[in-house]
Design a protein that fits this description.
Layout lengths: L1 E6 L5 H8 L3 H11 L2 E20 L2 E10 L8 E3 L8 E6 L9 H18 L9 E6 L4 E10 L6 E6 L4 E2 L3 H12 L4
Antiparallel strand pairs: 1-5, 2-3, 2-6, 2-7, 3-4, 7-8, 8-9
Length: 186
């Protein structure tokens, strides 16, 4: 088991359970398509926080942005400030991914993703755009609730971001499935 630093979740286990078993048309459709909810578990994905400087049209903006450190495919996290001790907790768990993305490839992916975000907000507003990023030490794990659904021996994974309170698409379940299939589970 690993001891990690995680953001303190905004969603409790009970709230996650309620979210996964929501009644109404959406909950019914989910149960019919994927089967009933069998269990839930907390899960943690490592992110690397970077100090980012964005220069555009002579104006400089400083941000704290985090990129997922396994494959870099998840959405970026942006912080108003570096999380304080009260916003972080130490967790001893086996339900966490190991970081695999080194700082340099993570930095390149982060800059590329930020560039895409800025272009999507208005290509014509950008002049002499420069983005630089510097990694901060250590990893910060983001908590998720993972739901296991299914009938018989088949299972379908659904994920809830325990910070943003949103159900995830296919990317987080794919990471969890790869982790389970890797055999690195204690």
């Amino acid at each position: 088991m690993a001891t990690i630093r995680s953001l303190r979740p905004n969603v409790t286990r009970q709230e996650a359970l309620e979210q996964f078993t929501t009644r109404g048309p959406l909950g019914l459709a989910r149960s019919l398509a994927y089967g009933p909810l069998r269990s839930i578990a907390d899960f943690y994905i490592p992110f690397r926080v970077f100090e980012v400087e964005i220069t555009n049209s002579g104006k400089t903006d400083h941000r704290l942005v985090a990129i997922e450190s396994v494959s870099g495919m998840l959405d970026l996290y942006q912080f108003d400030h570096l999380p304080q001790d009260r916003e972080i907790m130490e967790v001893t768990t086996r339900n966490c991914l190991e970081p695999r993305l080194d700082d340099e490839p993570a930095k390149k992916l982060l800059v590329e993703k930020l560039r895409r975000v800025l272009f999507s907000k208005g290509f014509f507003k950008l002049r002499n755009l420069e983005i630089s990023a510097k990694p901060l030490p250590g990893y910060l794990h983001v908590p998720y609730w993972i739901g296991f659904r299914g009938r018989g021996e088949r299972a379908r994974i659904t994920a809830l971001d325990a910070m943003r309170r949103t159900l995830e698409g296919a990317k987080v379940p794919r990471l969890v499935e790869q982790w389970l299939a890797s055999g690195n589970v204690d």
